[in-house]
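Table 4 source record.
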Amino acid sequence: MAEIIETLFGTIADPNKIAVGSASRITKSGPFYNFSIRVDSNDIREYSFTNLTRAENMRLILIGHLEEKLRKDLKSANFKQ
């Protein structure tokens, strides 16, 4: 089960759901499979692969990395005063 974090303001956040919601679905555009990840409001990264399996695997990996970043950011925000 995912670790649900309570922020300094008392709201509950699930980093896994936030990370999955920040990633687009994989779409086929010509010979490429594309998806994007929204890291923050001004940083959207787009990725392109020629193989669907590689695109799916990389999307899962990047969602995991984003989840860890969010978890770290949410935890560190709890201790700032």
